[in-house]
Design goal:
Beta-Lactamase; Heat Shock Protein 90; phosphorelay sensor kinase activity; single chain; 16 helices; 609 residues; five-stranded antiparallel β-sheet; dCache_1; membrane; 3 domains; nucleotide-binding; transmembrane
């Protein structure tokens, strides 16, 4: 077993790794999904079963509630109808009918009450309405042979009527049928609601009792699934209505069991789980109860989930096999390319992959073959080039001029000119030789500040020899900054601007001053030239701030002031020393221009300038 695992986990081809990775990435999530699905399915099935039972009870509730509201509507109508109340109060007070038409008026009043009762009950469900006065007089919508209303005084529940207030109702619940006709057709139980009739002093003078047959509720209870038992219970959990009339009046204990179990929907009875849901009625304290075996309640829903699970499992296996097949087909060109690469590694450059296509693998095959063609051509070209290169190097070594030879020749010319008495030309050649030596011989970009000053001195001397009028260079450099490293030739553009644009190649003075100040040293270059206009100075400051260059500003004299030198020096110094470097230019017309640079002492210049 261990050997098998080692073989599976051992690194192999890319195709093998892709297949293993695909199987793992699909199999593990699929197993987790199936496990979570099975776990969540149980809750979903339970929720669906409870929801289905609640929906069924909701339908039953609608029918039962409407029936009970209809009974209350009849009682309310009799209780608030002014014509009925006036007749009933007169009869309850014992006021006799007098006069020649006494019998007719009594007959008319009786017909008026019974007619109104008949009118409100004729369009709805069949119900029995009884109006019973305390003196024993009564009015009904049924015949006298059906039931004797004064017998209601003998009912055990009738005493509860005296405790009612206002429009309160007393729901009698299920009792044996009192009506002769209903007993003959085996309607064994009835349900009644009772109201009191009160006078102006709130004294009870009569009662209204509305009765329906229990079997009028039975059809909707029987319409639910045969596996689902639906009951109507009173406040004490006694059965008021049931599809099996033999259970009416008996106690239903399982609502209390569910309540004691924390209101659970599923309870265990005799080792079997049952689904029990309740729904209270809005018009009374009765409630509807749905009671069914849990297995039967979830059978349809569970069957659907099982079919979905089976379909998912089969789909997973089919698509996994399809994926493995596609991976094998997609990686076949890569396997072939790998074989060709192994052949090339052994030194055979004549082999080609012959892989073609518009996808990435096809393009890779084309590129690989082209690369082999190019390598073959390059090997031949390099062989030829190397032979030519060796000949060129030999010729170059033969023609190479040593820089020291150039300096020696310049020094010989200077000595010859000096021997003839032309000291100015000799000094000019000497300065040029020193300037060239500093330029050519130095390989580093950073030099000491005193070396930069020497370059500037020789540069000014050469410029003086070119111009008709000489410029005086005054140097005042503190010894504290002599060894400070600075970029080579960073002062030359500043001095050149002072010579060409500040002094306009005329006589004048350029002062170079440098001194240490706290953690930086300050370099000041001032000339006694013509200065700049305010708008020219502002434009120069703007270009120095943004690093822009490449434009010229025309002054009043018509000469172009270079805007390249100073911004480039500023940008170069900032690249070397960072934002700690500062450069300021001050200028006034007729007063000259002053350039001040603040260079940090502790900075170690960067060699990439």
């Amino acid at each position: 077993m261990r050997h098998l695992w080692n073989n599976l986990l051992r690194p192999r081809t890319l195709r093998y790794k892709l297949m293993i990775a695909s199987v793992v990435c699909i199999l593990i999530p699929a197993c987790i999904t199936i496990s979570v699905y099975n776990y969540l399915t149980r809750d979903a099935v339970k929720e669906q079963a409870v929801l289905s039972a609640n929906e069924s009870l909701k339908l039953v509730d609608g029918y039962v509630t409407n029936m009970l509201k209809y009974m209350l509507y009849i009682a309310n109508y009799i209780q608030i109808d002014p014509d009925i109340n006036m007749i009933l109060k007169n009869n309850a007070e014992g006021n006799p009918y007098v006069g020649d038409d006494a019998e007719y008026r009594e007959f008319t009043d009786t017909n008026k009450i019974t007619g109104k009762i008949g009118n409100i009950t004729i369009v709805g469900e069949k119900c029995y309405v009884t109006i019973l006065l305390k003196n024993g007089k009564y009015y009904t919508n049924y015949q006298a042979h059906e039931y004797n209303p004064p017998d209601l005084f003998k009912e055990p529940w009738f005493g509860e009527m005296n405790r009612l207030n206002g429009v309160q109702s007393y729901w009698v619940g299920t009792t044996p049928t009192s009506f002769q006709t209903e007993r003959l057709v085996h309607n064994d139980y009835q349900i009644s609601v009772a109201r009191t009739l009160r006078g102006t002093g709130l004294d009870i003078y009569g009662y209204v009792i509305v009765t329906i047959m229990e079997n009028q509720l039975n059809p909707v209870l029987k319409s639910i699934s045969p596996d689902q038992e639906t009951l109507l219970l009173d406040a004490s959990d006694h059965i008021l209505s049931h599809r099996d009339s033999g259970k009416i009046g008996s106690y239903f204990p399982y609502v209390k069991v569910a309540s004691e179990a924390g209101g659970k929907d599923i309870i265990e009875i005799g080792g079997e789980n049952y689904l029990l849901t309740t729904r209270p009625l809005g018009v009374t304290d009765w409630k509807l109860v749905s009671f069914s075996p849990y297995k039967k309640a979830i059978f349809k829903v569970d069957s659907i989930f099982q079919k979905v699970f089976t379909f998912q499992l089969v789909s997973f296996i089919v698509f996994l096999l399809l994926l493995l097949y596609l991976l094998r087909a997609f990686t076949k060109p890569l396997v072939q390319l790998g074989r060709v690469a192994a052949t090339v590694r052994r030194g055979n450059l004549e082999v080609r992959s012959r892989i073609r296509g518009n996808d990435e693998v096809g393009l890779l095959g084309i590129s690989f073959d082209q690369m082999l063609d190019r390598i073959k051509d390059m090997i031949a070209e390099i062989t030829l080039t190397q032979a030519r290169k060796r000949k060129a190097e030999l010729a170059m070594l033969q023609a190479q001029i040593n820089p020291h030879f150039l300096f020696n020749v310049l020094n010989s010319i200077r000595m010859k000119v000096l021997g003839r008495g032309d000291r100015d030309s000799a000094e000019m050649i000497s300065s040029l030789s020193k300037l060239l030596r500093m330029t050519i011989s130095q390989e580093k970009d950073m030099i000491s500040f005193h070396e930069e000053v020497e370059i500037i001195i020789h540069y000014v001397q050469l410029m003086d020899m070119r111009q008709k009028e000489k410029v005086t260079l005054e140097v005042d450099v503190s010894s504290d900054v002599f060894l400070q490293k600075v970029p080579r030739f960073f002062l030359q553009p500043v001095i050149e601007n002072a010579l060409l644009h500040g002094l306009s190649r005329r006589a004048g003075t350029i002062k170079l001053r440098a001194y240490a100040s706290e953690r930086q040293f300050v370099i000041v270059v001032a000339d006694t030239g013509q200065g700049m206009e305010p708008h020219q100075l502002e434009a120069l400051h703007r270009r120095m701030l943004t690093g822009a260059a490449g434009h010229a500003v025309e002054g009043e004299t018509g000469q172009h002031l270079s805007s390249i030198g100073l911004p480039n020096v500023c940008e170069r110094m900032r690249m070397t020393f960072g934002d700690a470097f500062e450069m300021k230019v001050d200028s006034e017309i007729g007063q000259g221009t002053t350039v001040t640079m603040y260079v940090p002492m502790e900075a170690e210049g960067r060699s990439d300038v």
